[in-house]
Amino acid sequence: MKTALAQDAARIQAHFDQVLSGFAAGPVTQGMGYATRGGKRIRGFLVLETARLHGVDGARAIWPACGIEALHAYSLVHDDLPAMDDDDLRRGQPTVHVKWDEATAVLVGDALHSLAFELVTHPNGAERTDIRADLALSLARAAGGQGMVLGQALDIAAETAPTPLTLEEITRLQAGKTGALITWAATAGARMGGADLAPLTRYSEALGLAFQIQDDVIDVTGDAAQAGKAVGKDAAAGKATFVSLLGLDGARAEARSLVDAACDALSCYGDRAETLQQLARFVISRQT
Predict the structure, then answer these.
(1) Measured distance CA(174)–CA(132) in Å, rounded
(2) N or C: which end of the chain has fewer CB within 10 A?
(3) How far is CA 211 from CA 29, 140, 255, 283, in A?
(4) Mean of pLDDT values over 61-79
């Protein structure tokens, strides 16, 4: 699984390098390149793998794969800002606002947000204009006030709430903050191939929640050097997490159950979905 992720990550990086080579030199372009380097590229991998599953040309799938990674990078740049999570470290490197300044980080995030939709709607991507439009519309919904941004707003509100969130409330929060972009990525290949979205939607919803539970586990059990970012922040802030509500063993058991559900959702694909099943198992074994 690590080899497969690394191979697709290299393809995504090469495509980013090509795209950004056409941008004017300056701090914003430098910051865009900086923010889009590194990471596991799980969202981009999901686009490429589900495209392969549906017979979509990889040369076309690379465009929305880079699109979702650009949008994810924008979200991290803004999330790290002092007005949000105020983090100094991301992927083992100084965050964009630390390396440059806050104004540059805001502009880098803005530029990556725009780039995401440029890549998703690029004519070298999905062959048909209606599919490109569908990819853009669904991404806008996943990223905005009905998806990721809503989840982030709920997360910020939880920090000052008089009582900790319930398990149901945390699940709803994370379905937006983390899950919405994962679901978009996992269904992109089916959208491009004109296939039924339902199996991959079920798969990705379980996968996204398992991913977040493992993040909560890492925040409790990991160290900053290995994780490449600050850990222990949720406990220090008194925030409710899957671990605080379920306990460490309970959270791990729930993640395993979700992975089983994710794999079961792929049964209609038979052996062709083996890589996606491996990804689900990898998600809850990672330490970064």
Answers:
(1) 27
(2) C
(3) 30, 22, 8, 6
(4) 98
Classify 228 in phi/psi space as left (phi over 0), alpha (psi -120 to 50) or beta.
Answer: left
The Cα–Cα gap between 123 and 208 comes to 29
pLDDT digits 0-9 by tens, 91-148? 889 999 999 999 999 999 999 999 999 999 999 999 999 999 999 999 999 999 999 9
CA distance 282 to 288: 11
Identify the residue whose tokens are 């809503």: 150
Helix H or strand E segment including 231: none
Q: Which CATH number fits domain 2-283: 1.20.1250.20, 1.10.600.10, 3.30.565.10, 2.60.120.330?
A: 1.10.600.10
Decide if pLDDT at 235 tops 90.
Answer: no
Please name which of 80, 27, 109 lies closest in space to residue 228, comparing C-alpha atoms: 80
Q: Which amino acid is at 87?
A: D
Look over the chain and give the mean of its residue pLDDT values, rounded to a whole number.
94
Residue 231 confidence (pLDDT) above 90 = no
112-115, long-range: CB < 8 A, 24+ apart = 112/32, 112/35, 112/36, 112/70, 112/71, 112/73, 112/74, 112/77, 113/70, 113/71, 113/74, 113/143, 115/19, 115/32, 115/67, 115/70
Number of residues assigned to the chain:
288
What is the secondary structure of 256-275 as a DSSP string?
Answer: HHHHHHHHHTTGGGGGGGHH
